Amino acid sequence: MAEVLSQSEIDALLAALSSGEMDASELKKEDTDRKVKVYDFKRALRFSKDQIRGLTRIHENYARLLTTYFSAQLRTFVQINVASVDQLPYDEFIRSIPKMTILNIFEAPPLEGRMVMEVNPNIAYAMLDRLLGGQGQIPEKMGALTEIESNLMERVFSKALDTFHEAWKQIIELEPSLEVMEMNPQFMQIVSPNEIVAVISFSTKIGETTGMINLCLPHVVLEPIMPKLSGQYWFSTQRKVRDETEKLLLEERLKTAKLPIITELGTATITVGEFLSLTQGDVIQLDQSIESKLQIKVGERVKFLGQPGTSKGRIAVLIDEVLEEEEEHYE
What we know:
InterPro entries: CheC-like_sf, Flag_FliM, FliN-like_C, SpoA-like_sf. A hairpin with a 2-residue loop joins strand 5 and strand 6. By secondary structure, the protein is an alpha+beta fold. The strands form two sheets. A six-stranded antiparallel sheet has the order 1-5-6-3-2-4. Strands 7, 8, 9, 10 and 11 form a five-stranded antiparallel sheet that branches.
């Protein structure tokens, strides 16, 4: 981004140009010089901006599903939101997470490969405390999980993967399953260090405890469905195609819907004084000729034209003409 000059710097620059101390051609030459930008081949971008937006949409829905799930499981206030969606080398992701954390390694057939849900220890231990009947507090010293604690954590996060399936079902039908739970990132090598991964970070609050949940999705795993992450595909799938049975059922329900039908004899304009002085027996002259057909409205739309009359002693109207779509009148 270009540097913004202060007013004093602008004045000094104009004074130098006016006095001849600085040549305007030198400034133009600097602008035309080729600018060099450093490119790191280890951080080659594999996900387009459109695909990143697609991942964001999917995992905003996932965040809502996780909020509902954890709220029911922990019986306390839970708030989960997407904080960021980034792409970076896998090695950089490993270095960015704590040395001791909860790593849920899972698979999601038909996609090939493994993915990771990393849960910050603050969040994990707050969950564990709630599951064991506590207030959701963090212990002063965090050590390795016992066998019982590990089983509890595996059960909770294994069911959390069901909501992962729900969030992705508009793109692909996944069958996620927890493979193993680790605590040391050094023992987790799901892809090569230089492989690009998408990292979705969720800001999480459980009671008074805050922390992050990170979802690591390697590019090599998502590669078969990358075209489906584009905005064009996303919005095209929103148009639901109804089967014939559903169409017939919808048609039958529409046929039973009740709509008001109004036959308008005509209109007239009178003053407020005339309206207030109306009494029984007064006649109001309408602007409609007795030879003209009456407008018959369905809702607010004129659909038919007809003639007034009686049927079995009741006032009725005979439909003479059905208006075509382009002939319909709107009020």
